[in-house]
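can u pls check wat happens w/ magnesium ion
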Amino acid sequence: MDHAADAYRTDLMTITRFVLNEQSKHPESRGDFTILLSHIVLGCKFVCSAVNKAGLAKLIGLAGETNVQGEEQKKLDVLSNDVFVKALISSGRTCILVSEEDEEATFVVASKRGRYCVVFDPLDGSSNIDCGVSIGTIFGIYMMKDGDEPTLNDVLQPGKNMLAAGYCMYGSSCTFVLSTGAGVNGFTLDPSLGEFILTHPDIKIPKKGKIYSVNEGNAKNWDAPTAKYVEKCKFPKDGSSSKSLRYIGSMVADVHRTLLYGGIFLYPADKKSPNGKLRVLYEVFPMSFLMEQAGGQAFTGKQRALDLVPKNIHERSPIFLGSYDDVEEVKALYAAEEKKE
Ligand SMILES: O=P(O)(O)OC[C@H]1O[C@](O)(COP(=O)(O)O)[C@@H](O)[C@@H]1O
Ligand SMILES: [Mg+2]
Ligand SMILES: [Mg+2]
């Protein structure tokens, strides 16, 4: 098919069409999830457009505030948070929002309330904004537990209870990756149509990969199993090839590459940060959910990441996620260390 004809194809699987198809498999569904998702997708398109013109629209640089984690907020962090909070509330389908940028959870007023709880990192990879490197948005969705009034316990649930999770990467293209618990699918934004098109159906992570991804600048403070694992990646003793190191410093981009090419992404504990850096609810859980759905694994150094039960909304955890066999090696090193103790 030539390019001109291709431009007029109407059989493209847009994300809306895809989610409506999924919805039709559940005759009892009233379309609430589809509506919620369409608001998240709209938020991502908005942020994508802001990211693309950030340098021109004076959107780079600091906003002048620090968030609850003590991190300086960038203008795009603040703008993206506003976009998602408004998009999620106006969906009329949410009851609690947890954002990296807000100290407290937002409880939606009863008149605009639905039964979904959304946890999100509105802009991930903030340190990469000003140099134009890939950044993203991460989200996870829970259903409110029983009862009429939402409480914090509705979001302090293990990651395995999530109904859906995903991310949008603002990179050389804008890519939306989603799992509703039945595999992982990737969509690419066609800017001329303003629609996300299914480009990566049923993503499966390779069983073993050739890449490891970690901030090695923290190596002097790592625990023994992490140090041993990275040493093994570089100097394997079993005759296999060394792994290559790739580290972008935006979780969304590092995880996206890991998902497509295989390998492992780790943000381990270290002596200075015994719980690691990444936040359980809106970074570790959604990415772990996607990894498992794609056939990989996610491990904290102690347990399956999705079994964690967070005690507070901004809790952190070490994380090792990626190809099944690669994470299995990390698990074996932690098990051996535990035996010694
Ligand atoms: O600079 P470091 O310590 O390697 O940390 C990188 C990590 O920090 C993060 O940027 C934290 O996310 P935010 O930008 O949303 O705070 C992750 O995206 C990334 O994996
Ligand atoms: Mg982040
Ligand atoms: Mg962020």
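The pocket of magnesium ion (ligand 3) is lined by residues 77, 100, 121, 123-124, 126 (CB under 6 Å).
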